[in-house]
Every structure is written in C-alpha cells, then in structure tokens.
Amino acid sequence: MRKKNKLQAANLEGDADEVEAAFYRALQEGDIDKLMSCWADEDEIVCIHPGGPRVVGAIAIRATFESMFSNGSIRAWPERARKMQAAASAVHNVLERVEVLGPEGPSQAWVIATNVYHKTAQGWRMVAHHASPGTESEIQEVSGEPPVLH
After folding, report:
1. Which CATH number fits domain 6-133: 3.10.450.50, 3.30.230.10, 3.30.499.10, 3.40.50.1000?
2. Residue 115: HSE in the Cβ half-sphere, 13 Å Cα cutoff
3. For residue range 41-61, what is the model confidence (pLDDT) as tens digits?
4. In this structure, what are the phi and psi dihedrals at residue 130, rounded to the nearest 5 degrees?
5. How many helices, marked H, and strands, marked E, lie in the chain?
6. Which of 36, 42, 98, 116 could be disulfide-bonded to 128 (CB atoms 3.0-4.6 Å)?
7. CB 8: neighbour CB atoms within 10 A?
8. How many CA atoms lie within 13 A of 28 on its CB side?
9. Is the backbone of residue 80 left (phi > 0), alpha (psi -120 to 50) or beta?
10. pTM score of the predicted model
C-alpha cells in the first residue's frame, strides 16, 4: 500500500471550498492519490460512508476508497451546501447527488454529507467526512426559517 504523496498534498492550496472541490473531482475521476491529498496528515481523521462503520486514520480511509474505486469512479456532486467557518476550521453540510447505475440504466440518489476542514501547516485539509443515506428522490430540507408568503 502506497503512502500519501507528501509533495502532492503540500501543493494543494486554497481554502476549504477548493479542497472540497478537489475531493469531489477526485471521487469522480477515481483518483485515490488526489483524493488522499485532500485529507489532513493526522492519525485521528475519520470517514463514515453511508450505512458503514467509523473508519479512522489515513491507511484505513485509503483502503475503503480503494475498494470503492475498484468498481469505478464515484459520480457524486455536492449541492446546496450549508457552510460555517471559523479562523482555522470549516464545516460544510452538503446534499450529494450521486449517479447510480441500475438494471434500467443510470438514476440519481441522494446522500447527506458533512465535511469538516482544518487549516493545517499544509493548508486547508479534510479531517472528517460523514455521509448518511438519503432517499431516491430529492431531499426536502427542513429548517426553522418561517415560510415566505406572497
């Protein structure tokens, strides 16, 4: 098993938004090295795939994505992001629109994901990705905001 390419990780610059974009591009391309360069180089990074266990550490996270990529790339796009940011951390909650190939051809599914980023010595990096299964149809967001009447 190869270790994370430190040079590639060090060259990934930008803010949490750019790291998130690089993460989803890597998923869509099935590029494990690019995907892992988005993660912080820390022992306690964590990833939870929909319906799966908590996976801790870069070696274990890499193994889960390598297993997923053995079936091809993951065609997922983040949409409707809710973002909170402080000086050295950012939390993005997104609805992932995922293309799934079924017996009748491609269809869409939804996943609800929370991505957490920290500003490290190498720049912004992902420290947690927690994804939960959504529904087959578009998810309706529930919020405390009062409806607007026209």
Report:
1. 3.10.450.50
2. 26
3. 999 999 999 999 999 999 999
4. -125, 115
5. 4, 6
6. 116
7. 12
8. 14
9. left
10. 0.81
Q: 97 is written with which tokens?
A: 């629109």
> Which of these, 84, 82, 87, 95, lies nearest to 133 by C-alpha position?
95
Query: What is the residue whose two structure tokens read 């990096």?
Result: 125
pLDDT at 61: 97
More confident call, 140 vs 101: 101
Return the SS3 of 53: coil
According to DSSP, the β-strands at 46-48 and 123-133 are parallel
The residues, any chain, with a CB within 8 Å of residue 134's CB and separated by 6 or more, are 95, 96, 109, 110, 111, 112
CB 33 within 8 A of CB 23: no
